[in-house]
Predict the structure.
Amino acid sequence: MESISKPTLILDQEKCQRNIIRMLDKLKAQGIAFRPHFKTHQSGHIGEWFSALGVKKITVSSLSMAHYFSQFGWQDITVAFPLNILELNQIRTLSESLNLGLLVLDPKTVDDLGKNTHHTIALWIKIDVGTHRTGLASQARIDIDHIIERIQHYPHLQFRGFLAHAGHSYTSRSVGEVESIYNESLRILIDLKAAYISNHPGIEISLGDTPGASMVEQLGEVDELRPGNFVFYDLMQEEIGACTLDDIAVVMACPVVAVHPDRHQWIIYGGAVHFSKEFLNVKEGVSCYGRMVDFLKDGWTTKNVVTNPYIASLSQEHGIVQCTEETFGLYQPGDLTFWLPVHSCLTADAMGSYRMKDGRPIEHYRRHIYD
């Protein structure tokens, strides 16, 4: 800890690996293929923990991330983002060397891809199951038929099936709500598969969100799941009920740079460019951008999280920490404080690096993004 002088993301390897094993065992027991989303950790080093457990296929959020992980030996990669035909050169290069899966939502993009590539590419049709971010409505059968017809026009393109992300589960606050969203999302995909499988044998359905994968006990007739956030978890997932505070595998170390006794506040070196602007409403009119843990020699403890100070607001580099009269004296300028993030995916992406509890650095995609 003596070497930390600026915002630093610290990873607890034991908690992270425990989260991975728990999810893998659950899916194995139910005969569901595991295609974890690597956009949360973005680390070739952490990816090796998955491969050591027998995981063979992954999800990423961009072609450049697919290229990064291919350098670590991953050969079956789905890019869970709508196909961007302007990246055609990168698509061609990747399809030459690995089993590449892409998402399509319109026949023109399929035609552009088919005419300008020659190697096998698996195509998933993205379905909107209620998140309303992107995807086709399951009732849009004419549009779906047209896309499939164009896929079949090109021998090297393979219709893989239907893919969805139940991201609206992130607004849930109970097991019942998460189960309802998961089951309805799965029903939509199962109905689509049943409608098309006789003419397209071998198609599958792929679903992905951490709350559903973590909280639903019986995951049903889904072919593969693509959770990502579970590898670290965060305060948002804890509020939903997908994890406990002790499952969260990362904390941000931030120096205290100023204190203000008149308003019982500290200023930490750690702002929106480090944490992101995600927050929770801890009570009406009160926002929380991070909760403080107490650091120990072998990690951290969450036992005082409820009474500890919390991050009340963020600007670009500043974090404003709200204390009480009793907690204000815990730290002074020059001390390090440690914070559970609200959203670990965005925090990890913003930081672009990790350190283990013993100070060892961890490989990260952001070091290569401009190569």
